[in-house]
Amino acid sequence: MTRRTLPVLAATALVGSLGVAPATAGSLGAGSSGGDTTTLTAHITELNDSGVESTAWLSLEGNELSVRIESQGLLAGAPHAQHIHIGGTNQCPSPDQVGTGFEGTLRTTDAIDSYGAVQVSLTTEGDTSPASALAVDRYPVGDEAYSRTFTVTDEVAANLRNGEGSVIPHGVDHNGSGEYDGEQMSDLDPTLPSEATDPAACGELNVHSMGSLSMGSLGGSLGSMGSSGSTGSLGPLGSSGS
């Protein structure tokens, strides 16, 4: 059987800015004393028997969103697309939900009625719109921690203030080969293996008041958060592009 592996810069046609404001430096706690700051968290648990577990901390002031994600169990050396999905019922699917993938694995569109469509692409640099959903050269690699501050649209900001949305990392090594491969192609991009885009985990966003969520619980050293994480290396997939 011939394996089809993930191209190094696949889906680069989807990479590009749609006028989203560039990231600005700052910490997750910036402006936390303001009355319009909303803090959210998500406990992200496995889908597709991935073994992935993550925690996301978000702080929204006006249209400026600061995000930190810490993960474990993601495929080492491989990029993992991660997004804020909004829509549907704004809920995560059951971890044992059967999908249309190989041997019943869950593919991204199988649960679109639960978590909705991609509204924010949590890239390490550049555009964060849905157009960068598959910009595989601009996502964290393996369990690399993610931190970034950037601007979101009015609609996304309103959704987040209402506690609507889920954080979803993608990329599952179903066959244990150590890379994204397999005969089945992605339901999002037919040039990619399904393993590269299948959801690895999901966590529903929950709003917290600053009175009930201590700054110390927002992920440790908040002052160390920069404007973006590093892209790192694509490891066995080759070098990341510029």
Characteristic terms for this protein:
9 strands, 242 residues, disordered N terminus, disordered C terminus
Oligomer type: single chain
Average pLDDT level: 80
Shape: globular
Total number of distinct structural domains: 1
Order of helices and strands: EEEEHEEHEHEE
| Count of DSSP H/I helices | 3
- Count the strands? 9
Catalogue the unreliable spans.
1-34, 211-242
Structure class = mainly beta
The CATH architecture classification is Sandwich
Determine the CATH topology: Immunoglobulin-like
Portion in strands: 15-25%
Estimate the helix proportion, in percent. Answer: under 10%
How many angstroms separate the termini? Answer: 34 Å
Keywords: Signal
Region (Disordered): 164-199, 221-242
Signal peptide: 1-25
Protein name: CHRD domain-containing protein
How would you describe the overall organization of this protein?
With 242 residues, the protein is mainly beta. The protein contains 3 helices and 9 strands, in the order ββββαββαβαββ. The chain has helices at 112-115, 154-161, 194-197; strands at 37-46, 53-61, 64-72, 82-86, 117-121, 146-151, 166-169, 201-204, 206-208. A hairpin with a 6-residue loop joins β1 and β2. 49% of the residues are buried. The model is unreliable at 1-34 and 211-242 (pLDDT under 50).
Give a short overview.
The protein has 242 residues and is mostly beta strands. The protein has helices spanning 112-115, 154-161, 194-197, and strands at 37-46, 53-61, 64-72, 82-86, 117-121, 146-151, 166-169, 201-204, 206-208. Strand 1 (37-46) and strand 2 (53-61) form a beta hairpin.
